[in-house]
Amino acid sequence: MTITDTAAPAPAAFDTLRAEPSGGADMNLDVILDVTVTVALEVGRTRVPIRNLLQLNPGSVVELERDAGDPLDVYVNGMLVAHGEVVVVNDRFGVRLTDVVSPAERIRRLR
């Protein structure tokens, strides 16, 4: 097969990009505001052999790979989004966010 036409392809033409008014962004966000997500707080992790796991009973202590006083990890749908500390409000546990993971860091963790 021989190519006889050596003409360069025509450059692509693109429409001019225009910024949407701020109202458009708010209307798009309304679509997801009622979506439910799972928020999980992780105090720490550890690996335990099944033999030791089967020996656990009330009063047993499982040592975690995290020091006392270290911040909790806050996950939304399995993705780390923040760090925080435990607080008690009206006899209920809660979390005070101390650091929020940047969007760039969240994207980096996806890869």
UniProtKB/TrEMBL annotation:
Family: Belongs to the FliN/MopA/SpaO family.
InterPro entries the record matches: FliN, FliN-like_C, FliN/MopA/SpaO, FliN_T3SS_HrcQb, SpoA-like_sf
Record localization: Cell membrane; Bacterial flagellum basal body
Statement: the UniProt record of this protein carries the keyword Secreted: no
Major site of localization recorded for this protein: membrane
Job of this protein: FliN is one of three proteins (FliG, FliN, FliM) that form the rotor-mounted switch complex (C ring), located at the base of the basal body. This complex interacts with the CheY and CheZ chemotaxis proteins, in addition to contacting components of the motor that determine the direction of flagellar rotation.
Gene Ontology cellular-component annotations: bacterial-type flagellum basal body; plasma membrane
A GO molecular function held by the record: cytoskeletal motor activity
Name of the featured protein: Flagellar motor switch protein FliN
Membrane topology: Peripheral membrane protein
BP-aspect Gene Ontology terms: bacterial-type flagellum-dependent cell motility; chemotaxis
Lineage: superkingdom: Bacteria
Domain Flagellar motor switch protein FliN-like C-terminal: 32-101
Keywords: Bacterial flagellum, Cell membrane, Cell projection, Chemotaxis, Cilium, Flagellar rotation, Flagellum, Membrane
SUPFAM superfamilies: Surface presentation of antigens (SPOA)
Encoding gene per record: fliN
